[in-house]
Amino acid sequence: MNPERMRAVADAIEESGRFMYSTWGGRLNLEGEWTEDGISTTNELRDVGTLRHCGTTGCIAGWAATLAFEDKSYCVTRNQMISDLAQDYLELDHDEAQKLFLGQAMVYAGFYESDGKALGNATAIEAAKTLRMIADGEVKL
């Protein structure tokens, strides 16, 4: 795991205030509701731009992918799955990535009783705190 990148993702999520566990990347529709845009690959994220744009949201993997795109020293593979890019960028093994990206880390951090509740309810502040707790070794994946 790369603690510095984990903290950078936490900062990005917290600064934006936009977080949604159920989508790698999404936008506001005309009714002002969050929608999933079907963003699942690096090519699709590149076409949309990054999640820093107003009117976008995403999960931990989507935000990690955004930071990977912005990191000029990091090579982003074309048409890679967002979850794979995020796992590589954060230097996680498969099991760690699954726990982080699918809500189990929120349970370990004490925010929710089950990962299902985390997936539907987690906030940007909770996601940022969880990432910092993992980076600081307070929560193990």
Keyword list:
141 residues, 8 helices, single chain, globular
The quaternary organization reads as single chain
The helicity comes to 40-55%
Overall number of structural domains: 1
Q: Pick out the low-confidence regions.
A: none
Any idea what the radius of gyration is?
A: 14 Å
Q: Bin the strand percentage.
A: 5-15%
In round numbers, the mean pLDDT is 86
The strands making up the biggest β-sheet line up spatially as: 2-1-3
Largest sheet: 3 strands, antiparallel
SS class: mainly alpha
Number of helix segments? Answer: 8
- Strand count: 3
User: Given the C-alpha coordinates, what overall shape results?
Assistant: globular
Give the termini separation: 10 Å
Order of helices and strands: HEEHEHHHHHH
Give a structural overview:
The chain is mostly helical and 141 residues long. The chain has one domain (3-135). 51% of the residues lie in helices and 6% in strands. It has eight helices and three strands; from the N terminus they run αββαβαααααα. The chain has helices at residues 3-16, 42-48, 60-70, 82-89, 94-101, 104-108, 115-121, 124-135, and strands at 26-28, 34-36, 56-57. α1 (3-16) runs antiparallel to α8. The protein is globular. The chain starts with a helix and ends in a 6-residue tail after the last helix. The model has no long low-confidence stretch (mean pLDDT 86).
